[in-house]
Amino acid sequence: MNSRIRGFDGLRAIAVLMVFMHHKLPIKGIDLGREGVWMFFCLSGFLIIGILSRSRLACDRGISDFSTEIRKFFWRRSWRIFPIYYIVLILVTAIDLSSVAMHKNWSISNIQGLPYAYAYLSNIWLGCIHQDYDAYLTHLWSLSIEEQFYLLAAPILLLFAARHHVKLCLFLCAMAVLLHIYLRVSGYSDWMIHTFSFNNFAILLFGGLCYFYSAGERRFGALPSAISVAVLSVILLRDLLGLHVRGFDLALTELAQIGSTGLIVLAIAQNQDGIATRLLEWRPLAYLGRISYGFYLFHPFVPNIGKHDRLAPIFGAAGPLIGAVLTFAVSFLLAHLSWTLIEKRLLALKDSKVPLSLYAERA
Fold first, then answer.
1. Are 8 and 43 in contact (CB under 8 A)?
2. Which terminus of the chain has a lower count of CB atoms within 10 Å, N or C?
3. Closest alpha carbon to 12 in 36, 30, 32
4. Is residue 336 part of a domain?
5. What's the number of domains the chain is made of?
6. How far is CA 346 from the centre of its chain?
């Protein structure tokens, strides 16, 4: 498999656009943000579990060892995610503390959520304590899930021989699915269920299972891909029409949505010359996917001026749409500058400090 999988940047772009739409121009009845985050998780699981499995294979063949590979993995992950993440947090902290010192209007929830964000526990803050999206740090919950997954998956997959990885992922994924069903049937809140670590680990693990299938000789044809798209369309249409379900039925619907999302990722990975992949490689779309991490981090801090009390009358009925377009442009510019001036340079640094093994690939 090549170091870069064609179409994945395009999928990242679609995922971050879904999240952006949910936050800045929501469609009543449809949670595009949830689907976007699940797409991110499937892609991340595919790539991260693939890296860890190939790293363990290097250990199995005597090319490397556990200590080397786990240090390499966390070194590379740290350079990729920590710098820009903590730069944002430090800036937010400075602004919040300045607001408090100057007795300006500020949200207590922003201050209360900061310690959780620094510790990559924003999902605990959002799902179990705050349970509201009014604070501008709440979108960090999904990044907390990914970091927690790294801490779990890396030692487990690097300790066990590569031949056991599929069984391990299947077992853990099955346990997470059963837990998800139990939580839904027991009536736990949406906030808790959708930010609960182990539930979301199932999505990442399913992405890893898609990687193992892709690495084999079996191919994923066009019909399953079409069925996956149809299932997602039906679920989104049902939400749009307000035909909501609860309990066990809702759990099965969510699992079907996650499964369909993962199968779309698999279809793109296995059909590198297909029409869908070529469309996803459209340069503006692929570039947005490449800088999607920064875009995801920055966009909640850019207000939709079309919804501002004083400016809304100027824009009229088109205000929210015009504001969303301007918000997108500013968020894109910030992400572009972050990628060009910070992230891209740090990626080169991490690669120069820790050479990849024969079986590792760039995430």
1. yes
2. N
3. 36
4. yes
5. 1
6. 21
Comparing CA positions, the residue from 257, 251, 259 lying closest to residue 232 is: 257
Q: Is 361 within the bounds of a domain? A: no
Has residue 245 got a pLDDT over 80?
no
Q: Convert the pLDDT of each residue in 274-293 to its tens digit.
A: 898 999 999 999 999 999 99
CA pair distance 333, 87, nearest whole angstrom: 17
Look up the pTM and report it: 0.89
Distance CA 313, CA 138 (A): 29
* pLDDT at site 128: 87
Distance CA 318, CA 267 (A): 38
What confidence tens digit (pLDDT) does each residue in 300-316 have? 988 877 666 666 667 66
Specify whether the backbone of 202 is left (phi greater than 0), alpha (psi in -120 to 50) or beta: alpha
Q: Domain span at residue 170?
A: 8-353
Q: Are 320 and 44 in contact (CB under 8 A)?
A: no
**Among the listed residues 292, 322, 311, 249, the one whose alpha carbon sits nearest the alpha carbon of residue 14:** 292
Q: Do 101 and 360 meet the contact criterion of CB atoms below 8 Å apart?
A: no
